[in-house]
Design a protein that fits this description.
By secondary structure, the chain is mainly alpha-helical. The chain has helices spanning 19-32, 46-60, 67-81, 90-101, 110-123, 129-145, 156-165, 170-186, 190-201, 213-225, 239-242, 248-258, 261-270, 272-277, 282-298, 306-312, 320-329, 356-387; strands at residues 303-305, 333-338, 343-349.
């Protein structure tokens, strides 16, 4: 997921052409591509003509128009909208955003639509925070529908900044994160899809957590399914996940947080229908649980014997080497095999869970290091003073 937006990605949409000449160019484009209306018949102020143009977009935004030509036209319309008096500009901005997002165009037009909507966010008046949120929401929905979220130049850090600056309500934030999750999921980007689910669940409180029950279940299943996710204890701290305590899916999560392979196999034996209904693959679960069980066996150990691996991970001797290689590839453990001694030498492991005891241990180690550094510093001062 992108975290920042480079300023170079925001194109200038201002036009040096006089409004009357620009209106004539826009009218010609509309007529050339199927519009039956006539701007000359739209008497009144500029905003009336702008409204007519925006209403006609549904009739002219067609795949017969090349993407580059359409983008130039839309930017021209945007520059005209910016000439509408500020006290009347919000309506045209929202209608223009909706027209672009809802245009019936093939997926290949998606990135172009996103660029126009991104520009619109930046050129809309600063005070129009509600309208800016609506444009961002349309942009994310457009990215979801066209399966092109990775073409969005706006990153999660920028989105969070806007949410704060625009004073977006919690419900609106949740809608936005949910749509962003779906947008990443449609492209198969499981990493960012899961990250947005976590962002979404983090917006719920103890009082509202029950509303996110379905999202919490989805987050658990996605975490288990993701072959690159091994540490899941942070899920237990989320309020919507706490709502699931006592349920079958919460028991399954606890196994992946701190259980061993045998715990999972016993769970599967009694809950086979549940596992299959959730769309998780038993074979993949076994593979992940073997790695997690190996990590747990290796924690605070300098070595793990082949006999332990055969018993705990239920792996035959001739498959141990390939298993260790795959375990190392997860980057959750660093180790090497001693074939002669029939054991695995452990260099380091990632903690599956980080409990209060782990924090206490870390605090004690840091305090000990601090004490030792003070002692070394004092000794160095003594040495320096005696050599003068």
């Amino acid at each position: 997921m992108k975290v920042d937006i480079p300023t170079t990605c925001v194109a200038a949409v201002f036009s040096d052409i006089e409004p009357e000449a620009q209106l004539k160019d826009i009218e010609k484009f509309l007529h050339d591509h199927g519009s039956q209306g006539n701007l000359d018949g739209e008497a009144g102020e500029l905003e009336t003509k702008v409204k007519f143009i925006i209403d006609e977009l549904k009739n002219v935004l067609k795949e017969s128009i090349p993407e580059g030509e359409m983008e130039m036209f839309l930017n021209s319309v945007m520059s005209l909208i910016l000439l509408v008096p500020e006290d009347k500009i919000n309506g045209p901005i929202v209608k223009f955003s909706e027209a672009i997002a809802n245009a019936n165009l093939p997926e290949k037009y998606g990135p172009m639509q996103l660029r126009v909507l991104t520009n619109l966010i930046y050129v809309a008046p600063e005070r129009s925070t509600g309208e800016k949120y609506q444009i961002l929401s349309d942009l994310i929905k457009c990215a979801r529908n066209h399966r092109c979220i990775n073409a969005v130049s706006i990153g999660i850090n920028q989105v969070k900044k806007w949410i704060k600056d625009w004073k977006v309500s919690t419900d609106q934030v949740q809608d936005l994160y949910r749509n962003m999750h779906e947008a990443y999921a449609t492209t198969g980007d499981s990493v960012n899809a899961l990250q947005l689910l976590l962002e979404l669940l983090g917006t719920y409180t103890k009082e509202t957590a029950l509303k996110a029950r379905t999202d919490a279940e989805k987050c658990i299943i996605n975490s288990i399914n993701d072959p690159n996710v091994f540490v899941m204890d942070h899920l237990l701290l989320l309020e919507p996940v706490k709502v699931l305590e006592g349920g079958t899916i919460h028991k399954l999560l606890n196994i992946f947080v701190s259980g061993r392979l045998q715990d999972y196999l016993e769970f599967y034996a009694s809950q086979k229908a549940f596992i299959e209904a959730q769309g998780v693959k038993h074979d993949r679960n076994v593979t992940k649980m073997r790695v997690l069980t190996f990590l747990q066996s290796a924690e605070n150990q300098k070595e793990v014997t082949f006999d332990t691996i055969e018993k705990e991970m239920q792996i035959p001797t001739d498959e141990i080497e390939s298993f260790i290689i795959e375990a190392v590839r997860t980057k959750m453990i660093r180790c090497k095999i001693d074939h002669l001694a029939r054991k695995v030498i452990i260099d380091s492991t990632v903690q599956r869970t980080f409990t209060k005891q782990h924090w206490t241990s870390l605090k004690e180690k840091l305090e000990a290091w601090k004490t030792n550094l003070v002692m070394i510093n004092n000794n160095l001062k003594t040495i320096v003073s005696t050599t003068k």
